[in-house]
Design brief:
This protein has 12 helices and 12 strands. By secondary structure, the chain is an alpha/beta fold. α8 links the parallel β7 and β8. The radius of gyration is 21 Å and the shape is globular.
Length: 321
């Protein structure tokens, strides 16, 4: 359904050219759920925004690559084609619902905008009926009353459900969710993830989930892409990633997860030493080598390519020549 080929995105700032995403390629099949994981600043959200051509210019620019949706290159769409594509064929749930919702309009007004744009055959009464049904579908109680509420009257979990309802208004083929549970407590997180699973099955859509939480990926996704410093470093089926981790960075991410057991609360969590490098910093060789426990001489000199290890596994590491 969606194929990204050699995508690179730069930001042109006063300090110089900042490469946020470099030579990224992946695909998402029909009805498939794919997770994109990595630390903050690794390029996850920039990749997600690129899929809808939402990179703000200036300062950002997609400098190379192609993004194909059902045999059409999104990057070649004119403004009219983009409007027809966004929200209709592909929709996005943003990270913080309070900043994504307009405080001056009711949630009903904001959901209705998608209907006015993409489903013009509906009259006002039909639109309101559809909106109430959508709010009911995403688990908002008393939708007949909530449709007239303003965003500040809703909890964080309810606002995120409204964002999901807006994204699903036109039954998109693919739903892009950018850290949809980051600002929510653990109980509400679980409810939102379960809701996304149910809606994916109900509408037979693809799901592209961006997160820094590998636990979320394990619950929701069939396949996982791991990013570091703007590049894909590993791609595997979810079960394979957890049972046979390939890249040292992914190993570090998994080890840093808290584990329940006898030693819970008695031992310190493992961490990956150092920090994600500044994108302006020109690191020779593998971008991860300053933090890697298995670094070799070649890692400091030459950057490895993303290699296919088996049918469903790829890794960017000199441990796999």
């Amino acid at each position: 359904m969606l194929q990204v080929k050699n995508l690179s995105v730069n930001f042109f700032i006063d300090e110089g050219v900042l490469p946020a995403v470099e030579d990224v390629s992946f695909q998402i099949k029909e009805k498939e759920s794919v997770g994109l994981v990595g630390e903050s600043g690794c390029g996850k959200s920039v990749t997600a925004l690129s899929l809808l051509k939402l990179i703000q210019s200036p300062p950002g620019k997609i400098v190379s690559g192609e993004i194909w949706f059902k045999e059409k290159n999104i990057l070649e769409f004119n403004p009219k084609e983009l409007t027809a594509f966004r929200g209709n064929k592909a929709a996005m749930i943003f990270q913080e619902p309070m900043t994504s919702l307009n405080p001056l309009f009711t949630i009903g007004n904001q959901i209705e905008e998608s209907f006015r744009l993409h489903r013009k055959e509906l009259n006002k009464e039909e639109r309101k009926k559809e909106i109430i049904e959508l709010l009911r579908l995403v688990g908002i109680p008393s939708p007949e009353l909530r449709v007239n509420e303003y965003p500040h009257r809703l909890s964080g979990g309810m606002r995120q459900r409204v964002m999901i309802a807006m994204a699903l208004a036109c039954r998109p083929d693919i739903l892009i969710a950018d850290e949809p549970t980051t600002a929510l407590d653990v109980t509400i997180q679980a409810q939102i993830l379960e809701l996304l699973r149910e809606l994916k099955q109900k509408f037979n859509m693809s799901l592209f989930l961006i997160t820094h939480d590998l636990g979320v990926v394990y619950d929701v996704c069939e396949r996982v892409i791991v990013m570091y410093a703007g590049r894909i470093v590993e791609e595997q089926l979810t079960e394979g990633l957890f049972s046979n981790t390939l890249h040292p960075y992914t190993v570090g991410l998994l080890k840093s997860l808290p584990k329940l057991g006898k030693q819970y609360g008695k031992t310190r969590l493992e961490t990956i030493p150092g920090n994600v490098p500044n994108p302006l910093e020109n690191i020779p060789g593998c971008k991860f080598h300053p933090r890697c426990s298995k670094v070799m001489d070649i890692c400091r000199k030459d950057e490895p390519q993303l290699k296919n290890i088996s049918g469903n596994s790829s890794v960017r590491c000199w441990l796999y020549p």
